[in-house]
Design a protein that fits this description.
Distance between the termini: 44 Å
Helix content: 25-40%
Strand order of the largest sheet: 6-7-8-3-9-10
Number of strands: 10
Structural class: alpha/beta
Largest sheet: 6 strands, mixed
Oligomer: single chain
Order of helices and strands: HEEEHEEEHHHEHEHEEHH
């Protein structure tokens, strides 16, 4: 997969008013049914299996937390869902279309592992980064007043509007992650896919970041979050999938806590962390 292909598929992650092609301002398109469908998927690198016969569905408006030990295939599964890899067998559909053929990239905001690391030295401001989220929705390269309003609202939503003219390189890790979420919101993404987005972020910023994801999910955005912190996942997600090459559990957080999936996927010495967020 070339970098240009990845950019096209994940335009929401990474014109004049009349030239903007999107839904009416302030409205979120109503989505019914499955956003993600994974059916009997197997995948490996160079003959070494990474995923075996995995099937799961993510319905519109869900918050799915994907957990599993290091090397369990979580990131690979997410990249398969986004069409960045082709499964060896099985099928993946994104918004009802085959994932590899899906080209409506602005509907997906993708934040990869340490996505902010490579951008620290870029001479670009917060406003410029968030404005990039509008590019797939404007025609003739013209960013108009309506687009600028949407960019401002996206920055306000995630709490970085006061940093609009700051260089990205001068922000903390938690602030940079919020900027990339704002970019996806500016593109009016329907799905946020995040791969351990809070790695290297301080504890207070992490908590605020997860609260933000919870709030955005409450607004109707479907969220898929990979995170090593099982307590955070069970606190915020409406559904949990536990993976270690194959799927050990897919259901609600209470059912996950009561199951033996954690022990089977991680080993008998693992325990569920109970975070107190009061």
């Amino acid at each position: 997969m070339s970098s240009s292909d990845e950019a096209r598929r994940g335009a929401g992650a990474v014109g004049g008013d009349a030239g903007t092609a999107d839904r009416p301002e302030g409205e979120r398109e109503s989505i019914d049914g499955a956003v993600i469908e994974v059916s009997n998927v197997t995948f490996g690198y160079g003959g070494s299996p990474v995923l075996e016969d995995v099937s799961l569905t993510v319905e519109a408006g869900e918050f799915l937390g994907l957990v599993g030990p290091n090397g369990s295939g979580k990131s690979t599964l997410l990249r398969l869902v986004l069409g960045l890899h082709r499964p060896d067998s099985g099928e993946i559909r994104l918004f009802g279309e085959p994932a590899r053929a899906f080209d409506d990239g602005e509907r997906v905001g993708y934040v990869a592992q340490d996505v902010t690391g490579g951008t620290r030295e870029m001479p670009i401001t917060v406003r410029e980064v968030v404005t990039m989220g509008r590019y797939p929705r404007v025609r003739f390269g013209r960013v108009g007043s309506r687009d600028r309003r949407i960019v401002t609202e996206a920055m306000e939503t995630v709490g970085v509007d006061h940093l609009a003219d700051r260089r990205l390189a001068h922000l903390s890790g938690g602030q940079r992650q919020r900027v990339f979420i704002a970019r996806a919101l500016a593109g009016e993404a329907d799905l946020l896919a995040l791969d351990e987005p809070a790695v290297g972020v301080d504890a207070e910023s992490r908590e605020a970041f997860y609260d933000l994801l919870h709030e955005l999910n409450g607004r109707g955005i479907t969220v898929v979050l990979i995170d090593h912190d099982i307590g955070v996942v069970t606190e915020h997600a409406s559904r949990v999938a536990c993976l270690n090459r194959r799927l050990f559990f897919h259901g609600d957080p209470d059912g996950f806590a009561e199951s033996d999936a954690l022990a089977r996927a991680y080993g008998a010495n693992q325990r569920l962390l109970d975070h107190d967020h009061s």
